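Hello,

Our lab assistant flagged a job as stuck in the queue for most of the afternoon. It eventually completed. Since we weren't sure the result was trustworthy after the delay, we are filing this so someone can double-check. Below is the sequence as submitted and the structure that was eventually returned. Let us know if re-running is recommended.
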Amino acid sequence: MRLEFSDGRIVRADCSGGDADKLRRILESDLGASYVGEWSIGCNPKVLQPMRDILFDEKIAGSFHLTPGNAYDEADNGNRSKIHWDLVQIQRPDYGGGTICFDGETMRIDGRFIPSDLHGLNPETHAGPAISP
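-- returned structure --
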């Protein structure tokens, strides 16, 4: 899936598998559906693979979580929609890698935080076994 943003709104959406029209219909279902309701960086070193439980999956070490649509009251950004679609992208090398940049500064590559003041969020700084599904 590829989502292109402009001024905080998804302005272009595409995906493989022939479902691009369905994807666009979901994101056009109401005004709030094409805005972000939630966004976070997953860094729980105990959760390393999808468990099919979004409360765990959205925290997978080396992932990020993006939700087009409605914001929940617990973390309200004001966006309202009948859609709340939790998406998780794992960016560790074993899942294809990826990079997160903010304002031109690289923050994370392949699931590892780059700035020295964020190294404490990298998985090896936490001991103990991972949680398995």
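-- support follow-up --
The delay was a queue issue, not a problem with the job. The result is valid. The longest strand covers residues 36-42. The two ends are 25 Å apart (CA to CA).
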